[in-house]
């Protein structure tokens, strides 16, 4: 009787979280596929030789994210087990990988590492040869300054910057943002004051740092995907499956924020200096909200509080600056533009934000 | 030649014969000895590893796999000496490192190799550049393959660089003492993208021309240094003296821009990148080798911060 019950329990179909996610994804894909108007256009974009790396990114990035997080989960389980059993923590070798007493802790590089490197080199060479035999590098007409390519796109790895041009003036999108990105990446190790997770995959011990990086990394990749698959002639937003209509004109009623607010019965906002002061206040407010948001993330629980206590004021301020200006301001600006057709938040005679 | 005539005439012929036979005998004896010596020596050549030539090139025996020779195989090889002789037994796992750093370096080598070959067929001049690419595609033996490989390897290198960075973040490998090496890595990331970008213009086709036009147009807007950037005009910036002019060697993408990107692509950036790579690899060793897989640390084991 008991056996039967257990059997039934096991065979009952249960939806795991991953399954639900997959089904949801499948539904989205099917709904989208039913709405595709122009398969030929889609094929033209997807089959462009220079777009292969982006198609590869769509597969490779989720795969490696999964590979990393899978190892993180295994380590997190081990950490939980060791934390609840101090005796085991003293004797355990502290890895999820197999280990027996008497095994050498170190291996000779020759041949155990060198052979793997050799194998990797051979595999990469084979991939390159196959890729190069099957797909030709693109070569367009000779350069002609009198004939503008439409759309004229930057190389795919810089499409993120080109997409930013929609939301920011060139000096921010092309100069300030890239500099902030590079410097922000460089300061990353110096503002991460969490000593845990040095040299092993973990999620639970480093939720904050990892999610901040993933946020930036995925944002960058999503921008590239938008720039490749969505932006058509005139840099107009065409959903995948729509025809790239070279004559399309979009009547975006792009307005500045102060114009909208002035329309609410505050006409003095349309003139200097109030226009500029208003913009500065709003940008200040966005920085404040962003700062509070990240502060809330950093004080969410006891563990995060403990890490925050180890963070110096300089580290904290540096992190907040880069987090708000890159990770927060950008999505805010993107949504304001795409959803509310707001062009500038802050207008001055010298620059606009 | 006439043999030397001995004294006397009666038994002259006889003596000559005897002497001749002696000489032949002697010569034969020497020949046999020489042959034996040659055979004995040839026997030693059967094992090339015992020759002076071999030993001078490979200072270490590679056929015996005792620990000493395994270590020496790494330590005494210029290409492998960046490795330690021994590593953490788990560090050879592909799952941990994904092999992305090594593959990025390998791709750099592939790109250098194919790039040098391409340089034989390419002139960075407006009248020739585009034709050279067509020549490469249609006439040069394996020219198309060469160009394809150079392009796809470049794309792949950017992806592997990003994935390498991603892995380093997920394993916390940028943490003390490796913070500085992470910064060197960020510089290499930027250089990798710049290498690819400067190469984009070289075919001198519409794709490269407009991509570079779009890219360098952003430089117009550089604050202070660009003629359309904030406070640029106030500082006297025009299209003919700003930072974009410096990048392109002109106010439009033209012959000078082609030459400049060629030199940056083939000499300037690879040189700088090589130096940064040398530092990057050297620092890996100095910072204690590969970061893991390290034993996990518990929250209770965090040391108090030094005040």
Number of strands of chain A: 1
Cα Rg of chain B: 34 Å
Strand count of chain B: 1
So how many helices of chain B?
Answer: 11
Mean of pLDDT of chain A: 87
Q: Give the helix level of chain A as a range of percent.
A: 55-70%
The biggest chain-chain interface is: A-B, 106 and 106 residues
How much strand of chain B?
A: under 5%
Order of helices and strands of chain B: HHHEHHHHHHHH
Task: Give structural notes.
The complex is a heterodimer of chains A (353) and B (307). By secondary structure, chain A is an all-alpha fold. Chain A is 63% helix and 1% strand. Chain A contains 14 helices and 1 strand, in the order H-H-H-H-H-E-H-H-H-H-H-H-H-H-H. Chain A has helices at residues 2-11, 17-34, 39-46, 52-84, 86-91, 109-112, 114-134, 159-167, 170-191, 207-230, 257-262, 274-298, 302-309, 313-340, and one strand at 106-108. In chain A, helix 8 (159-167) packs across helix 9. The longest helix of chain A is centred in the first third of the chain and has 33 residues, at 52-84. Helix content of chain B is 62%, strand content 1%. Chain B is mainly α and 307 residues long. In chain B, helix 7 (143-170) packs antiparallel against helix 8 (179-200). Chain B contains 11 helices and 1 strand. The radius of gyration of chain B is 34 Å and the shape is flat. Classes of the chains: A mainly alpha (353), B mainly alpha (307).
Q: In a nutshell, what does this entry contain?
A:
The complex is a heterodimer of chains A (353) and B (307). Chain A is an all-alpha fold and 353 residues long.
Summarize the helices and strands and which ones pair or pack.
The complex is a heterodimer of chains A (353) and B (307).
Chain A (H helix, E strand, L loop, with lengths): L1 H10 L5 H18 L4 H8 L5 H33 L1 H6 L14 E3 H4 L1 H21 L24 H9 L2 H22 L15 H24 L26 H6 L11 H25 L3 H8 L3 H28 L13
Helix pairs in contact in A: 8-9, 8-10, 9-14, 12-14
Chain B lengths: L11 H34 L6 H6 L9 H9 L10 E3 L5 H4 L2 H20 L6 H13 L4 H28 L8 H22 L5 H15 L22 H6 L6 H32 L21
Helix pairs in contact in B: 5-7, 6-7, 7-8, 8-11
